[in-house]
Write a structure and sequence with these properties.
The protein is mainly alpha-helical. It is built from three helices and two strands, in the order ααββα. The model has no long low-confidence stretch (mean pLDDT 88).
Length: 67
């Protein structure tokens, strides 16, 4: 998979995680370890975005002519 295709796939995946129907599922009055479920969901998605971006950058490597 090319870098541009991989980046687009990741963008679409994480955009889909942040649309209203999925946010509505996490938007419950329940507390998990004293933290609202929606907040935990948003932090989990954010952490996944950071992790996947890191892994994609490592897989693609530096641009031609660098490093």
């Amino acid at each position: 998979m090319k870098a541009a295709e991989l980046a687009l796939a990741c963008f679409l995946l994480f955009a889909a995680c942040l649309v209203w129907p999925l946010l509505a599922i996490a938007n419950r009055p329940a507390l998990i370890a004293g933290v609202p479920a929606l907040v935990l969901y948003l932090f989990a998605v954010w952490g996944a975005i950071v992790l996947v971006t890191f892994l994609v950058v490592r897989r693609v490597g530096p641009p031609e002519g660098e490093g």
